[in-house]
Design a protein that fits this description.
Blueprint (H helix, E strand, L loop, with lengths): L1 H4 L4 H23 L4 H20 L2 H4 L5 H7 L5 H20 L6
Length: about 100
Amino acid sequence: MLIAVFHFHKFVRGFLGDVLVIPLLYALIRSFTKLSGKQALILVLALAFTIEILQLFSIADALEIDNKIARIVIGNTFDGWDLLAYWFGIIPVLFIEKYRNYGTS
């Protein structure tokens, strides 16, 4: 909700959004696959880092992608801070996984 309200703020839209995409993708992958938590997290980080590196090489332009949704998913601007945001996105995943079954007998 904060991203929707503060979408114009560079930190919220640019950094916090990238932090939150990691737990979101992690949850999706864990929901639809039988990967372990560690495997899913590695896959999510590899995917995020790969897409960011491809942005460095303007892959959407190089492949002449015109579809708006595909361009949004792939992105078109490399930002090294996004890589840091992805690492910060691991923190809530690790925290939730550590305490997910806490207190259950």
